């Protein structure tokens, strides 16, 4: 399972075993099926995770903090894998601030496309 799948599982749960029901449409970002489930409140889930940890987090702008809040590996290797999962086409493959910002925005867009309720400020 890839990093993107692990992140989506944190928000939407595991896909039903043996599910063969075709989706009506797919996301533009990853080409993955769009969920037909009711919207999941992304902000509430991350805020609850951050509160449970009891440590400050800048998850609204930091891909590293977001991944840490979800108890996921936030290493450079993990972020490179996430960039691949999200079809990153930039030239920077080494975790620059620019790439990390792109990853955060692309992830928020992907979550929104897959049934996540994402605050509009996080989609800009």
Question: How would you summarize the topology of this molecule?
Answer:
Layout: H1 3-12, E1 40-41, H2 42-53, H3 63-69, H4 76-85, H5 97-113, E2 116-117
Parallel strand pairs: 1-2
In short:
The protein is mainly alpha-helical. Helices cover 45% and strands 3% of the residues. The longest helix is centred in the last third of the chain and has 17 residues, at 97-113.
Could you describe the 3D structure shown?
This protein is mainly alpha-helical and 124 residues long. The protein has helices at residues 3-12, 42-53, 63-69, 76-85, 97-113; strands at residues 40-41, 116-117. Strands 1-2 form a two-stranded parallel sheet. The two termini are 28 Å apart. The model is unreliable at 20-24 (pLDDT under 50).
Instruction: Describe the sheet with the most strands.
Output: 2 strands, parallel
Question: What's the alpha carbon Rg, rounded to whole Å?
Answer: 14 Å
Kindly state the number of beta strands.
2
In helices, the fraction of residues equals 40-55%
Residues in β-strands, percent: under 5%
Order of helices and strands: HEHHHHE
Give the mean pLDDT: 87
What's the tally of helices?
5
Gross geometry:
globular
For this structure, the quaternary state is single chain
Characteristic terms for this protein:
124 residues, 5 helices, two-stranded parallel ribbon, 2 strands, mainly alpha, globular, single chain
């Amino acid at each position: 399972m890839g990093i993107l799948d692990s992140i989506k599982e944190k928000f939407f749960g595991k896909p039903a075993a043996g599910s063969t029901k075709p989706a009506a449409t797919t996301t533009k970002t990853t080409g993955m099926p769009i969920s037909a489930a009711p919207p999941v409140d992304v902000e509430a889930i991350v805020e609850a995770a951050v509160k449970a940890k009891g440590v400050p987090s800048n998850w609204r702008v930091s891909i590293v903090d977001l991944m840490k809040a979800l108890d996921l590996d936030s290493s450079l290797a993990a972020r490179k894998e996430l960039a691949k999962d999200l079809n990153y086409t930039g030239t920077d493959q080494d975790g620059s601030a620019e790439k990390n910002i792109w990853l955060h925005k692309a992830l928020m867009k992907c979550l929104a496309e897959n049934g996540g309720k994402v605050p509009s400020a996080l989609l800009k």
